[in-house]
């Protein structure tokens, strides 16, 4: 199996599309997928992305049903999973920085969980709370598939 990155994202409106080049052919995908791929692509090396909208034949109900059964394995087998929450907006940079700070370290650091609570209890201004709230109110978090993808 080749190394690939699985993309976890919110499809968005299927009626509003943009073109992408896929195997040398133009293919229309949702704005969300096109934006994610444009931001993730590498210009200096090959970058293989698995995205359900193009890797599963959406017109074939039987294929779609069988692929849905394999989704957990598809994401588990990926060399990495990238979560695309959408383009920056509503102070999302502040929200992401805050979430990283609250994370407090790596899973291999036994003291990390104590630092998480220290950082969250630390006073945070209203603008920062609103930024974090806005980030977690994005449509991505309302998707049923998050658990198996991430």
Automatic annotation (TrEMBL):
Residues 4-149 form the Heterokaryon incompatibility domain. It comes from the Eukaryota. InterPro entries: HET (IPR010730), HetReg/Transcr_Mod (IPR052895). PANTHER family: ANKYRIN REPEAT DOMAIN-CONTAINING PROTEIN 39 HOMOLOG-RELATED, HET DOMAIN PROTEIN (AFU_ORTHOLOGUE AFUA_8G01020). This is Heterokaryon incompatibility.
């Amino acid at each position: 199996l080749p190394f690939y990155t699985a993309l976890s994202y919110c499809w968005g409106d299927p009626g509003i599309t943009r073109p992408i080049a896929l195997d040398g052919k133009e293919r229309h995908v949702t704005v969300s997928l096109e934006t994610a791929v444009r931001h993730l692509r590498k210009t200096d090396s090959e970058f293989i992305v698995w995205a359900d909208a193009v890797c599963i034949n959406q017109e074939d109900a039987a294929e779609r049903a069988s692929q849905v059964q394999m989704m957990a394995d598809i994401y588990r087998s990926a060399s990495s999973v990238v979560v695309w929450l959408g383009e920056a907006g509503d102070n999302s940079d502040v929200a992401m920085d805050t979430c990283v700070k609250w994370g407090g370290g790596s899973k291999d650091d036994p003291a990390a969980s104590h630092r998480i609570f220290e950082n969250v209890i630390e006073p945070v201004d209203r603008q920062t709370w609103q930024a974090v709230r806005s980030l977690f109110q994005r449509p991505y978090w309302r998707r049923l598939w998050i658990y198996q993808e991430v």
